[in-house]
Design goal:
This protein has 280 residues and is α+β, with helices and mostly antiparallel strands. It has one domain. It has ten helices and ten strands. The protein has a ten-stranded antiparallel β-sheet with strand order 1-2-3-4-5-6-7-8-9-10, sandwiched between helices. The radius of gyration is 18 Å and the shape is globular.
């Protein structure tokens, strides 16, 4: 299964100020890639016809091999031992793996998700590994069947596992991301009406505000498992269907590879000018 994140789709998504997390991430990276290339005097990857693709790894043997590789990493061992202390000492219930590539087959990064279940307590956990050319992120997402609207997200940092954030999804689809220090980000749902208005013809000032918000959110959480967790929690598929958040996951990995610092160093005004010129 392959999911292509086209530039047209990305541009359409960027127009909504209250875009859900999946839309935000799907919109951010493709335009950021163009800006980065233009700023460096190069020619944008997407302008050359290259697009980002999520390719799901199928076959039990392949998924098992990828799971073993994730667990063999030092961070994977730390995360697995932590999950055992939380009641997830049993077997892996299911495995989902995928690669993020350019359409010419150049690898951007990989993602693997190992699902665990504690039948006694009715709790679930993901052990997640995302990797790119320069980064590897290993973390865990924990939630219970009794409270599926809330999850705790952990990351392996400096040889130990730490709580990165708690996500809570409200009945209207709003997701609140709360850090251990109390810092909070809110990702609001994107209605059908919001998807059409204001669109790409938004005034420059409005577009700049949107860009600033998106950039701030990404930079707060870049290269942390909380980005992937927000992807999962923002989809209509539910937290157990991992690869459903394909477009969002593609861009999380791409942003992590390219780095938040490079993206945010670009002017939001310039970014919005590119969008408006493309929509003209």
């Amino acid at each position: 299964m392959a999911t292509t994140v086209s530039r047209r789709t990305a541009l359409r998504v960027i127009g909504g100020a209250a875009a859900a997390a999946g839309g935000v991430f799907a919109g951010l990276f493709p335009e950021g890639q163009i800006l980065h290339a233009e700023a460096a005097g190069g020619y944008g990857e997407i302008a050359q016809g290259r697009q980002l693709v999520l390719r799901q790894r199928t076959g039990e043997a392949t998924r098992n091999a990828r799971a073993a590789q994730a667990l063999a990493r030092p961070g994977g061992g730390i995360a697995r031992r932590f999950l055992a202390t939380q009641g997830f000492g049993g077997k892996i219930e299911s495995i989902e793996s995928a690669d993020v590539l350019w359409t010419d087959e150049e690898l951007v990064g990989t993602i693997d998700a190992l699902l665990f279940y504690d039948a006694r307590k009715g709790k679930y956990a993901y052990l997640i590994r995302q990797s790119s050319k320069t980064h590897e992120v290993i973390g865990a997402i924990l939630w219970s069947a009794a409270q599926p609207e809330t999850c705790d997200v952990y990351d392996v940092l400096d040889g130990r596992i730490v709580l990165s954030a708690t996500l809570t999804k409200s009945p209207d689809g709003t997701i609140t991301v709360r850090a251990p220090d109390g810092r909070t980000d809110v990702v609001r749902p994107r209605s059908a009406q919001q998807a059409r208005v204001p669109g790409l013809a938004a005034p420059s000032m409005y577009c700049t505000q949107v860009c600033t918000w998106e950039c701030t959110f990404i930079c707060n959480w870049v290269c942390k498992s909380v980005l992937v967790a927000t992807c999962i929690w923002s989809t209509i598929c539910g937290p157990l269907v991992f690869i459903c958040a394909g477009a969002c996951i593609v861009t999380v990995i791409a942003v992590c590879e390219w780095s938040c610092g490079n993206y945010c160093s670009q002017s939001c005004r310039l970014w919005c000018d590119v969008i408006q010129e493309s929509a003209a």
